[in-house]
């Protein structure tokens, strides 16, 4: 009996992709004044995968994340999402200023109707995961920018964690929109390392938007380059585990491709 249940779970984990885009397009407005932000985007993020989405300013990266998060709808094509709701970590932590760090982390659990004792325990566990144990009673203004982003990350993990069914306890998809770009270089470097540790510890899939090639190569298993408006997938690189000269080579190659994309847009 146990074997059957385990087999079914393995199968579902293998086939479930947190998100899959089929020829997705998004235009703002209509007629001649329409801004086509995305056109014919095919993209998938597999279970537990870390994908970095790279592109020049205005190429539609945030639009794409908004579509996945359900904050907006595509004008063409289709987005397939697995059952759990993705959560977003933005450039600014956007915490509730009147709630403590723990209270902010508990908020999505409260909204999901999770009982108090369970919420408390989950918040404490997540505070520990983001290395903020002992700071749960601090309000956002008492924390540094880096600490606030850690709280935002913990809150997102709380809201993406599936509390039901066979996937219980497993976060499914985390969307990150340039989450470290407002931080100083040292804090950014530390948080990139922390994010990798947390990704490995939780098994969540991450779709991470950045315009920083170095960051994309350091963090991602796969780097996906979007063209400038309209945003389309132009190229992908498998960058998992690259180090030393290989990593530097990938950064140079992707930078060159990004420059090409930017200059072709400027010439259009
Ligand atoms: N609500 C909106 N109404 C009209 N145009 C919009 C809207 N949102 C985005 N756009 C346009 O769609 C295009 C893509 O915007 P988006 O914010 O997704 O780009 P981005 O790649 O995230 O940019 P950046 O890196 O500068 O944040 C831009 O030309 C932008 O002006």
TrEMBL record:
> What SUPFAM superfamilies is this protein classified in?
P-loop containing nucleoside triphosphate hydrolases
InterPro entries per record:
AAA+_ATPase, ABC_transporter-like_ATP-bd, ABC_transporter-like_CS, ABC_transporter_ATP-bind, P-loop_NTPase
Matching Gene3D superfamilies: P-loop containing nucleotide triphosphate hydrolases
Q: ABC transporter domain location, by residue?
A: 19-253
**What CDD domains does UniProt report for this protein, alphabetically?**
ABC_NrtD_SsuB_transporters (cd03293)
Q: Which UniProt keywords apply?
A: ATP-binding, Nucleotide-binding, Transport
Q: Does ATP-binding appear among the keywords? A: yes
Q: Name one GO molecular function term.
A: ATP hydrolysis activity
Protein name in UniProt = ABC transporter ATP-binding protein
> Taxonomic lineage per UniProt?
Bacteria, Bacillati, Actinomycetota, Actinomycetes, Propionibacteriales
């Amino acid at each position: 009996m146990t074997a059957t249940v385990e087999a079914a779970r393995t199968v579902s984990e293998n086939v479930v992709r947190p998100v899959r885009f089929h020829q997705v397009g998004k235009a703002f407005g209509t007629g001649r004044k329409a801004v086509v932000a995305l056109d014919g985007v095919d993209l998938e993020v597999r279970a537990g995968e870390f994908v970095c989405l790279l592109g020049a300013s205005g190429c539609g990266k945030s639009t794409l994340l908004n579509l996945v998060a359900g904050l907006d709808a595509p004008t063409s094509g289709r987005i397939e999402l697995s059952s759990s709701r993705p959560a977003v970590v933005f450039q600014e932590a956007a915490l509730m200023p009147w709630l403590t760090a723990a209270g902010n982390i508990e908020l999505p659990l409260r909204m999901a109707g999770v009982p108090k004792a369970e919420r408390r325990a989950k918040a404490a566990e997540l505070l520990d995961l983001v290395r903020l144990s002992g700071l749960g009673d601090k309000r956002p203004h008492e924390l540094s920018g880096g600490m606030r982003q850690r709280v935002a990350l913990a809150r997102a993990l709380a809201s993406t964690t599936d509390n039901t069914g066979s996937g219980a306890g497993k976060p499914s998809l985390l969307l990150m929109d340039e989450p470290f770009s407002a931080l100083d270089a040292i804090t950014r470097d530390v948080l990139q390392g922390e994010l990798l540790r947390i990704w490995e510890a939780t098994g969540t899939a991450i779709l991470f938007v950045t315009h920083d090639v170095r960051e994309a190569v350091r963090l991602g298993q796969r780097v996906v380059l979007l063209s400038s408006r309209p945003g389309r997938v132009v190229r992908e690189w498998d960058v998992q585990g690259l180090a030393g000269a290989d990593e530097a080579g990938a950064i140079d190659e992707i930078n060159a491709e990004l420059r090409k994309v930017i200059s072709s847009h400027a010439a259009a």
